[in-house]
Input
Amino acid sequence: MDYANRKRPPRKPAKKASGKASRKPAKAGVSVPWSLVALAAVLVVGLIWFLSSISGSADKSGAAPQAQDVPPANTSEVVAEPIPEKPGDRWQYIDELENLEVEVDVPEREIGPPKLMQCGSFRNESDAQTLRARIAMTGLESQVRSSTGSNGLWYRVILGPYETKRDAERDRHKLQRAQVFGCQIWNWNL
Output
């Protein structure tokens, strides 16, 4: 069925409103129930009377003794004690730590065998030279070495040698930012 060229179904005629609802005229104003207004006014007046009646009750009930009810104290019998001196600074570490030096023993790193990074191994020398050119565009120098194994002649693209693995990792991250993936770091001797 072709939905794009389909015609709309014909509209049905609107039904006429029937009954008393259509005959009632619209009201001009809204009627207010005067009994609710009177009840609200009585409640407001009652609340005001209640609040005014309890506002003066604290003075009459004697909730707080006034200064006139308290007998005066004998000032000749009261001896003023001297205020004790402020205690000294209990913390001494602040002065001690200012002149303290911390000694840390850092073990020397063991330098293992030199590291080489292989970024590819190809059957065709032209593929290896293409990868070498991409690596050269990142600013690193690589070599293409041929190796003969049990499964034939291979052309390896290698970088290095590096003294530490950290140096090799730094170059590998630089290559990954340049979209050269798959480089692996090995402990190889030349």
